[in-house]
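Hi P.,

Sorry for the delay on this. The queue was packed all week, but I finally got your sequence through. Input first:
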Amino acid sequence: MTGKGHLVVLAAGGTGGHVFPAKALAAELAGRGCRLVVITDRRGGAWQGPADAIETLRISAGGIAGKSFAARLKSGPELAIGTWQARRLLKLLQPRAVVGFGGYASVPTMLAACFGGYHTAIHEQNAVLGRANRLLASRVDRIAISFEKSEGLAPEAQAKAEHTGMPVRATVATLNQHPYPAITSDGPISLLVIGGSQGAHVFSTVVPEALGLLDDGLKRRIKISQQCRPEDLNQVHRQYKSLGIDADLKTFFDDLPERLSAAHLLIGRAGASTVAETQVAGRPAILVPYPYAIDDHQTRNAYAVDEAGGGWLMPEPSFTPSALAARLDSLLGLSAILEKAAAGAKAAGTQDAAERLADMVCELLPNNGNGNGADGPDDERGAA
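Then the structure:
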């Protein structure tokens, strides 16, 4: 299917978990000839950068979930203003489809699109439907889900849902073709520890202590790349140096795909992007869900990985140095276990998620080639 020059509006913003799949879809649709516009909130920093040639428009938006009563009172008017602003923009743009990626930044645009009668779709990145997407699910035309099982999807919305998977960056998608690195009896073992854009303090406190509990022979083989918060860098560096462990510590890895390709095991949170990238790459992971995530969606993400045999869920209260050391000792000593988990991760991943999502969007466009899409240029939807 091709876009044939039709305009598609993407509604996204906030964290990378919402923005990464939107960017992956944008690249795929642009390759099919679609024109693209992004509508995000006024912060919208995730879309800034010289490499992004997509026109970006900003509106007001206000989050509700997890906020105090006073903050909710302030967010309500922002949401109403943002919806009005988005309605004006959509009337000017007259897009053929509007696609939302969850999070409060997408809500005003998606509400305006639904009220205006435009063709709409939403993408859910997590194993639990986010609150924004739950609000929109009954109103949109199509729902793309990243996991085969998605909680929070109302029965009446099930028929709209399609498992497309979670789109990942092109540089990560290519890792699907890279074999899992072999582990020899006395060769190096590569660990990758990531904890979100700013690192997770719990990894800085637990992982070095856990590695210190391993026997000396195993310790000497470990090569670790770890993301740390700035305030943790010096202390973690001293700990690894005292243990004689080869450690590369940074607050941010701009070469994460290369490090993921070389990793024998990843330790990290269970955000949608982390889960999707480790699965597409086929790398086993110990996942420690962020315990304060809204609706505990990271636990459901990690559980899905564990259930598929692609990794292991360790709740943060159980993520102690002794527990992690015991887990690492059992895993790193038997390469067959890691190799089996790597295969399980790859089997659960969806390398062509961007293509699948783009196929769904193209089905909403006029003359998509299979007769099941939207009407032609005279379609009256969106003229309101």
